[in-house]
Amino acid sequence: MIDQAHHQMLIAQQQMLLVGLFDSWPSVQINMALAGQQTWPEGQYQRGLQAYRSNAALTAQRVLAAAFPSVKRLMGDEQFDGLAVYFWRTHPPHRGDLAQWGEGLEDFLRAIPELMQHEPYLPDVAALEWALHSGQTAPDPEGDGLIPLALIESEFPIVDLVIGKEWDASSDKEPQRALVYRQGFKTNCIAIPKDAQL
Predict the structure, then answer these.
(1) 59 and 142 share a domain?
(2) Residues 156, 113: one domain?
(3) Same domain, yes or no, for 1 and 94?
């Protein structure tokens, strides 16, 4: 039976470890405190922490790329992978199912001034991709019915961007209204007219 003091110490160690994992540059004090509580040498502790961080970075890149393949394609691998790691550190998962992580990417992208200046369509693409991704776990429709899941208004041709059509960002904007729906076991999106009734 673990006594209360030992239990509190374990909780404090776990919290310090999480800070060490999610902080890009963990403070010297946190690292020293964590290393001092371990039975292995500090160098070995530091290598272990780095291994955890490297694994977390790769996991972040894979998980985010699975949910946002078009955002990754439009940004480029290197820029997207760096963004995924930073997003992981600043918006860590709060659930055990990593497939549920990524919901805040749209707002995260909107808060990057340089990105909004050069690629202002990316947050809307992220919103559409998240609706498609999260729609995969929506309840199955009865029969062959269609279940509308989300309606996303954009000043940009986001449906075209998500399905991989070429678009010149320097050309005139082509606003699209994207309908995300579930039919059978598949989640899809289509562009619909602005005045379409659902």
Answers:
(1) no
(2) yes
(3) yes
Q: Is the dihedral of CA 182, 184, 188, 192 positive or negative?
A: negative
Q: What is the DSSP string of 44-88?
A: HHHHHHHHHHHHHHHHHHHHHHHH-HHHHHHH-HHHHHHHHHHHH
Average pLDDT over residues 83-98: 84
pLDDT on residue 110: 97
Q: Name the 3-class secondary structure at 34.
A: helix
According to the model, what pLDDT value does residue 5 have? 73
Q: Which residues contact 7 (CB under 8 A, 6 or more apart)?
A: none
Which residues span the domain enclosing 167? 103-198
Q: What is the pTM of this model?
A: 0.74
Number of domains in the chain: 2
For 2-17, the pLDDT digits (tens) are: 577 766 766 665 665 5
| Strand bridging mode 176-183 / 146-154 | antiparallel
- How far is the C-alpha of 71 from the C-alpha of 94, rounded, in Å? 22
